[in-house]
């Protein structure tokens, strides 16, 4: 018996494209499909470097700011955005003046000397402070407002002054009108007035807003009363 494996003779010939197929082929040749470029994400280097991340400065711990000048952190060591806050907190506290402290004596030659508590009641009261921790005197105003571009060497700001036998050194710290100390005094006065003027301006602005609001309320009430009367007529 013969196998029925007969194939159509048309399968041995390539089909002639129709008019529609030919036009599609021509369009595809004229407008080829654009190539797609795939850009890969950059791979980390072999050293495993990671992108930089900006970390906000930490919030200053107001509660634990030491009142003793011998234990204080230098103002320049605070973040620039925190320094004004630190200044305000210390101004509210005032200089460290432990009047009830028993000041220890130090031998200078053949005599013993110590910090005199009466110095707190003198003209030095606004700035003179004492460190129990270091048994030394410091300048409260210079700590807060001494210009950062001024060179060091001032014991009243850095390590403290404790040569109780040379009282002139405390007087000399204030110096003349253009001294570093007096410049710090001016800076503190400007700082205090600036903060006070801001609070005053905000208070004044609030009063003006409330006054304008009350005037507007009166106008609205009058308008409503006039409208009610017209409707009743």
TrEMBL record:
Residues 41-53 have a biased composition (Low complexity). Residues 1-57 are annotated as: Disordered. It comes from the Eukaryota. Residues 111-204 form the TTF-type domain. InterPro entries: Znf_TTF. This is General transcription factor 2-related zinc finger protein. It comes from Heracleum sosnowskyi. The lineage of its organism: Eukaryota, Viridiplantae, Streptophyta, Embryophyta, Tracheophyta.
């Amino acid at each position: 018996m013969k196998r029925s494996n007969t194939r159509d003779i048309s399968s041995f010939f390539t089909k002639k494209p129709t008019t529609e197929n030919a036009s599609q082929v021509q369009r595809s040749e004229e407008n080829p499909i654009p190539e797609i470029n795939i850009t890969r994400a950059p791979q980390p280097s072999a050293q495993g470097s990671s992108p930089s991340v900006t970390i906000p400065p930490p919030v200053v711990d107001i509660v634990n700011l030491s009142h003793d000048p011998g234990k204080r952190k230098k103002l320049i060591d605070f973040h620039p955005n925190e320094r004004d806050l630190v200044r305000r907190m210390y101004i509210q506290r005032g200089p460290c003046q432990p009047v009830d402290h028993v000041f220890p004596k130090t031998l200078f030659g053949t005599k013993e000397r110590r910090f005199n508590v009466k110095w707190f009641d003198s003209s030095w009261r606004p700035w003179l402070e004492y460190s129990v921790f270091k048994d030394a005197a410091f300048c409260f105003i210079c700590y807060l407002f001494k210009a950062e571009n001024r060179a060091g060497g001032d014991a009243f700001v850095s390590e403290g002054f404790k040569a109780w036998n040379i009282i002139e050194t405390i007087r000399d710290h204030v110096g003349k009108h253009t001294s570093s100390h007096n410049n710090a005094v001016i800076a503190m006065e400007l700082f205090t007035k600036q903060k006070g003027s801001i609070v005053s301006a905000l208070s004044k602005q609030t009063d003006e807003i409330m006054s304008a609001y009350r005037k507007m309320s009166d106008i609205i009430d009058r308008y409503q009363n006039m409208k009610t009367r017209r409707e009743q007529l």
